[in-house]
């Protein structure tokens, strides 16, 4: 298998902000600089210059040059760059290029809601579908859900929430960080200059709650929060206050399969400390954000969060079983110091209570930049940075000195990511191994850079975010846009059970704004193992529906995409 990488001239296939950096990469063996020519849609020469030879890109093995045309600030569509007789994909220059991506990336959540009909009026006929998992045959769940044998003898009603990914599982670990990042995106509009609250407000998204007086992004978050709260172990039980790690099918189902056709038994899996702390953190954040809109819910969320945190303290080492992977992912994590840090931060931000601050000060992660913001990015198993972002940005009872310390940690991390984006052949703010969901690692580094930009106003942080977007949208070793519907060579066969056009022409491709997991050098699925053997790390990707290890989509990868799209759209407005 030889990937079709198209033109050797690699650009952001969507385009560049009018006043933003504009760079590309060309694959060439030429030892010396080459001439690049920028042409407008009519083929007229608009600018030209010399490429800068880079050498060999270690992530792809490709010999490349880089080029940039920052000075060009003429808006329009259909621009191309030609180098050595080879022409790039077309792209636009403008300031409103990303407003569609902001809403599309957020629409991902409505599309993947469980327990509610997805209405044609909101998403179009192609994407409309009946509600899934409301105990209507052949579905068996998510009301009155039993535990797996030996886990508990009660049953829970846990409808709603979002399906995790290509599968129909609902997981509290990663469900928590996903909803937290959506809430943080909303919360950013409360503290960051230039963050457009209306773009996320009531009437901004294609959700059924439009017009209820609540910002639509909070309506979307609420759908998941209600599910998370329902996963808590009831009072009177031995593990009261903990959260069940996950709820999913007893056996893996095949593809394609619409949610309402899933006939597998749904089961609750054992509570875990990590899930419990996801609930504590997300619940605490929800409490402060929903307070103006629904004080009863805010109070309920806070009670659940406090109860969860105390339960986690009583049971600090209930790790999810790494072998519990039948019918759903394991999401096991045997280091929860980061989840403790994140939950303490959110509880402190909301309540101002000293005990949470003490816990933060005593955390082994306190003041350790690499632990709070790992170079490889925030992720479901590395959540501390979410707490640090909150403490650096939201007004809390922290002393100014402590807030300054946490801000310094964040900026130090951002400086590292920004340096990567300057030195990488393809400009991405990431320099680690390419693992499962690598695109989300890139995106989460971009979130930290975006926050750094918001806090300092320094253009170099915003520029690094934009270069990251260039990478995701086509300036990369495969000439691939990893976001469906964006760019001429976009991913459209991601692993998903009902967005499965590759398997059945009557079904749609993923909805626009769905980001693929991306290159994963570990080749953990049969398609990748078979077709990608020997691939260079950044090229271990295939747009094939069965390659779940390189080409799945999931709530916790689209969340940083939504954050970044929103940030970049605001940047264009500003
Ligand atoms: O995102 C998860 C990734 O970090 C893990 O390496 C991988 C294997 O355990 O699982 C990923 O999560 C998947 C989950 O287990 C099941 N639903 C789909 C998720 C995305 O691929």
Secondary structure layout plus pairing:
Blueprint: E1 9-10, E2 15-16, E3 23-27, E4 35-39, E5 45-50, E6 52-56, E7 63-68, E8 76-83, E9 86-87, E10 91-93, H1 99-111, H2 120-123, E11 170-171, H3 175-191, H4 216-230, E12 243-244, E13 246-249, E14 266-268, E15 271-272, H5 273-290, H6 295-314, H7 337-351, H8 354-362, H9 369-372, H10 384-393, H11 400-423, H12 438-456, H13 459-472, H14 526-531, H15 548-551, H16 555-573
The protein binds ligand 9MR.
Ligand 9MR binds at residues 164-165, 167, 169, 329-331, 436-437, 548, 552, 554.
What does this structure look like?
The structure is a single chain. The protein has about 575 residues and is of the alpha+beta class. The protein folds into two domains: about 1-95, Sandwich (Immunoglobulin-like); about 100-310 and about 335-350 and about 370-475 and about 555-574, Glycosyltransferase, CATH 1.50.10.10. It has helices at about 100-110, 120-125, 175-190, 215-230, 275-290, 295-315, 335-350, 355-360, 370, 385-395, 400-425, 440-455, 460-470, 525-530, 550, 555-574, and strands spanning about 10, 15, 25, 35-40, 45-50, 50-55, 65-70, 75-85, 85, 90-95, 170, 245, 245-250, 265-270, 270. Strands 2, 4, 5, 8, 9 and 10 form a six-stranded mixed β-sheet that branches. α4 packs antiparallel against α5. It is globular, with a radius of gyration of 23 Å. Ligand 9MR binds near residues 165, 169, 330 and 437.
């Amino acid at each position: 298998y030889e990937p079709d990488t198209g033109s050797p001239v690699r650009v952001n296939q969507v385009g560049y902000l009018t006043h933003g950096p504009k760079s590309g990469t060309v694959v060439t063996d030429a030892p010396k600089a080459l001439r690049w020519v920028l042409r407008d849609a009519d083929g007229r020469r608009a600018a030209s210059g010399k490429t800068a030879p880079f050498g060999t890109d270690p992530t792809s093995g490709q010999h490349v040059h880089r080029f940039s045309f920052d000075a060009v600030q003429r808006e329009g569509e259909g621009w191309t760059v030609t180098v050595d007789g080879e022409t790039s994909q077309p792209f636009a220059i403008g300031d409103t290029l990303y407003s569609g991506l902001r809403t599309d990336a957020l629409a991902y959540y409505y599309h993947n809601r469980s327990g509610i009909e997805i209405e044609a009026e909101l998403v179009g006929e192609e994407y409309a579908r009946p509600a899934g998992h409301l105990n209507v045959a052949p579905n068996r769940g998510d009301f009155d859900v039993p535990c797996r044998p030996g886990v508990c003898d009660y049953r829970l009603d846990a409808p709603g929430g979002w399906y995790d990914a290509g599968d129909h599982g609902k997981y509290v670990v990663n469900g928590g960080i996903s909803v937290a990042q959506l809430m943080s995106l909303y919360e950013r509009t409360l503290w960051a200059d230039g963050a457009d609250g209306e773009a996320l407000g009531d009437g901004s998204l294609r959700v059924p709650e439009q017009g209820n007086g609540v910002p639509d992004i909070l309506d979307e978050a609420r759908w998941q929060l209600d599910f998370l709260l329902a996963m808590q172990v009831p009072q009177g039980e031995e593990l009261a206050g903990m959260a069940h790690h996950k709820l999913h099918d007893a056996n893996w189902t095949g593809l394609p399969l619409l949610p309402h056709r899933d006939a597998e038994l749904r089961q609750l899996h054992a509570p875990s400390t990590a899930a419990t702390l996801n609930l504590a953190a997300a619940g605490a954040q929800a409490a402060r954000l929903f307070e103006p809109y629904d004080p009863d819910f805010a109070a309920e969320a806070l009670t659940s969060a406090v109860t969860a945190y105390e339960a986690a303290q009583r049971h600090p080492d209930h790790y999810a079983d790494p072998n519990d992977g039948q019918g759903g992912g394991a999401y096991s994590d045997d280091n929860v110091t980061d989840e403790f840090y994140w939950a303490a931060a959110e509880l402190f931000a909301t309540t101002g209570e000293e005990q949470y601050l003490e816990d933060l000060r005593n955390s082994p992660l306190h003041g350790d930049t690499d632990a709070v913001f790992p170079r490889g990015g925030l992720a479901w198993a590395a959540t501390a940075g979410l707490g640090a972002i909150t403490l650096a940005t939201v007004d809390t009872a922290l002393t100014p000195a402590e807030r300054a310390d946490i801000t310094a940690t964040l900026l130090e991390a951002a400086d590292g990511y920004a340096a990567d984006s300057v030195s990488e052949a393809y400009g991405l703010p990431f320099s680690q191994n390419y693992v499962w969901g690598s695109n989300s690692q890139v995106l989460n580094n971009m979130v930290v850079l975006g926050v750094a930009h918001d806090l300092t106003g320094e253009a170099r942080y915003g520029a690094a975010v934009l270069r990251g977007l260039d990478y995701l949208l086509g300036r990369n070793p495969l000439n691939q846009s990893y976001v469906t519907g964006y760019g001429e060579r976009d991913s459209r066969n991601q692993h998903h059970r009902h967005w499965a056009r590759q398997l059945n022409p009557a079904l749609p491709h993923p909805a626009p704004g769905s980001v693929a997991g991306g290159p994963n050098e570990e080749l953990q699925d049969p398609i990748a193992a078979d077709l990608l053997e020997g691939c260079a790390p950044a090229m271990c990707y295939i747009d094939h529906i069965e390659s779940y290890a390189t080409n799945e989509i999931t709530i916790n990868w689209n969340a940083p995409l939504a954050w970044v799209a929103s940030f970049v759209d605001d940047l264009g407005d500003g």
